[in-house]
Amino acid sequence: MVRRQGGQAAVSRPFSIVALFLLGFNSAAASDAAFLEAVAQVESGMDRKAIGKAGERGMYQLKKAAWDDANALLESEKHFHFQWSQLPLPPSN
Fold it and tell me: What is the mean predicted confidence (pLDDT) over 50-72?
């Protein structure tokens, strides 16, 4: 959870591993991590298994096109590749 402290964002619990991974684990990423934590709180209530109405998935409610773009970048930098198909499926109607 992000809270304001002395005009700056502060996080009341450790950053999620996802936020730190997305930001490259560098020390300059603290304010960016606080921003990502706030986005995850608003988008999904920090639920990594959340599924949106239009098929968005995860804490940050990414659509498949954004997921594919991020994976292409991760692969080009020799990082892990996360398959969209490994995420929870939306409920069938």
Answer: 87
Q: Does pTM top 0.70 for this prediction?
A: no
Close Cβ partners of 36 (under 8 Å, ≥ 6 residues apart)? 15, 16, 18, 19, 22, 23, 60
Cα-trace Rg, the chain:
14
Residues 6+ apart with CB under 8 A from 4: 10
| CA-wise closest residue to 17 among 44, 43, 42, 37 | 37
Arithmetic mean of pLDDT, 50-75? 86
pLDDT value at residue 17: 56
- Sketch the domain layout of the chain as residue ranges: 2-86
